[in-house]
Amino acid sequence: MNIRIFIRNSFKTEEYHKAAEIRLVHSGNDYFETLENLILSAKHTLHLQTYIFDEDETGKRIAKALIVASERGVQIYMILDGYGSKSLSRKFVKTLRVSGIHMRFFSPLFSSQNIYFGRRLHHKVVVADQNIALVGGINIADKYHGSAAEIAWLDYAVLIKGSICQTIINICTQVYGRRFIRKQKKVKKIPKQIQLHEPFFVRIRENDRLRRKNQISVSYLQAIQKAKKSIYITGSYFLPGTRLRKALIRAAKRGVEVHLIMAGVSDVPVFQTATRWLYDLLFRNGIKIYEWEKSVLHGKVAVIDDKWTTIGSFNLNHLSAYGSIELNIDILDQQFSDSFQLHLKSVIETGCKQVFPIHQNNHWTAKLKRWAAYQITRTSIKIVALFPYINPLKKFN
């Protein structure tokens, strides 16, 4: 099926925009060199929003670049999550603010207005001068950069150039300014007839239940339901809801090759154990599972039918679906998706172990441990995710 038919049949009601250029960015040197160059080349404005900003070697390097940019007149608007970046010292924060950076924290756990456990700012986005953006799942910390002794956590981002970045700026401005209720502008839909030589087509997808945004969840579900040939998903904290699990199983039953890259090494072991409770169900339905073993898996990406890719901060679990503020980029481009799928195949071949039913410890105590981890983790993240919506102290802007 060619790209025109794929677009017409699978995404005929969706809103895409042209991008002049897109490039896949990997965690490690690739990401942080790209980020530093983006900051240092900014001329007028720069928006930075991230969940974790650590006060380590990598964090200090990026902070230095931000200060240099600010001191030469770039207007920088920076927002960090109040929980994810809570370890920053007062001195570090003061240094940034004294340099002229407009900086604030998103929703400390306790404030005079609310108590937000579940609603976190999970964006990892930087936009410079309204025409270039870096969006993905990579936080600013040593573990995402790696070193000679330790491989960087496996994760991805995408560099985008073009007028589409104005939409990302609008989102950043909205979050920074706490303007969560705003009139949505109508955007032009993608033409029915598309030539392969035309620019890339992308769409910006958000999840934030308080603002009635559920776009990333819908993107995943629709793309899986429309899959004809193959599905590759990299899931760092993989506990999808019932609808998405059923969609994956139905896809496998109709002949789609479903490949899931899971965490062989996890920074949250109980989450890993909970995910493994789902393996038996997935095995029974012909879904292939691989575990990345070289480092911690933190990526949140999918490639479907060599044509559609999504990259961003969204995890396939209830916390991302109902609690956090998430941002993903959907890319509708055959060449980009085909190249990324080849990369994921290389990841599987060079750094993963394929998991088979025989690898599961089926002693009743091991099964009980996986079941208990699944129930406790699922219940906990549901409570945390739903807390902002039942909190009597909440106030709407």
Q: How would you describe this protein?
A:
By secondary structure, this protein is an alpha+beta fold. It has one domain: Endonuclease Chain A (Endonuclease, Chain A, 2-Layer Sandwich), CATH 3.30.870.10. It is 38% helix and 23% strand. The protein has 13 helices and 17 strands. The protein has helices at residues 3-10, 29-41, 57-71, 90-98, 142-145, 165-176, 215-226, 242-253, 269-276, 279-284, 318-323, 334-351, 364-390; strands at 17-19, 21-26, 45-50, 75-81, 102-106, 124-128, 132-136, 156-161, 200-208, 213-214, 230-235, 257-263, 288-292, 300-304, 308-312, 326-332, 352-355. The strands form 2 sheets. Strands 1, 9, 10, 11, 12, 13, 14, 15, 16 and 17 form a 10-stranded mixed β-sheet that branches. It has a 7-stranded mixed β-sheet with strand order 2-8-7-6-3-4-5, sandwiched between helices. Helix 2 (29-41) packs parallel to helix 3 (57-71), helix 7 runs parallel beside helix 8 (242-253) and helix 9 packs across helix 13. The longest helix is centred in the C-terminal third of the chain and has 27 residues, at 364-390.
